[in-house]
Amino acid sequence: MYICIRNNKRKIMKTTISFDYRIAMNYATNLFLAVKEDKSTYKLDKRTEAIMIMLGIDTALRISDLLKLKYSDIEVAGEYGKPLIHTYVTKTKKNITIPISMCTLRHLENYKSWVELCYGDNGVSEFIFFNYNSKNKTTYSRQWAHKRLVIANNEGLLGNKVEVAGAHSLRKTGANHIYEITKDIRDAQYLLGHKNIMQTETYLAVDKKKALERLCTLAYN
């Protein structure tokens, strides 16, 4: 938990909780594909939400950096045989390179083709998360992202409903997923862009996870 002090009053702010990686990815994939049969005016919103979840979990970027991604940031054939995203992280003021899955890349390519078909009369924006239905012609906002994820969480579409959900949940989900796979906190640290490893351990509550893993290996009578 975080403690926020306002007007000399201590207010406890609960931390955002991660989603279930597998279920969240399945939801995003199904949402993207289901739009083919959807005749509502929310097609763009739904497909953009799907891409946001895929890229958000793959990259673990903060939502402000995620929504600023451009198609030109993507290197389809990276030097490691994986598609890569090269982008600038506002908080750390550093450039970072992050791999994404081939599945996410394919959906992103389909998304761009679909956008070109539906909204390409005046050209397609360089920004992936550009809102073509917006009167102000801007990218989707973090408020929109937060709202969509809260709704999906409340409906149990991202796994078991978590107490505190929001746009930051994508970042935590991505980092948790990498740590669970590699068991190397340094990989999660790189993905999150943290300066020191203790920051990452605190962020993911790794000490608690390690302690529980050790306890579970003990033989209890």
Fold blueprint:
Layout lengths: L1 E5 L2 E5 L7 H14 L8 H17 L3 H4 L7 E2 L8 E6 L4 E6 L2 H18 L22 H13 L13 H15 L2 H8 L4 H8 L1 H12 L4
Antiparallel strand pairs: 1-2, 3-4, 4-5
Helix pairs in contact: 1-2, 2-4, 2-6, 6-7, 7-8
Describe this structure as you would to a colleague.
This protein has 221 residues and is mainly alpha-helical. The protein has helices spanning 21-34, 43-59, 63-66, 102-119, 142-154, 168-182, 185-192, 197-204, 206-217; strands spanning 2-6, 9-13, 74-75, 84-89, 94-99. It has a 3-stranded antiparallel sheet, with no helix packed on it. Strands 1-2 form a two-stranded antiparallel ribbon. Strand 3 and strand 4 form a beta hairpin. Helix 2 (43-59) runs antiparallel to helix 4 (102-119). The protein is globular and about 60 Å long. Mean pLDDT is 87; it is low at 1-6.
In short:
This protein has 221 residues and is mainly alpha-helical. The chain has helices at 21-34, 43-59, 63-66, 102-119, 142-154, 168-182, 185-192, 197-204, 206-217; strands at 2-6, 9-13, 74-75, 84-89, 94-99. Helix 7 (185-192) packs across helix 8 (197-204).
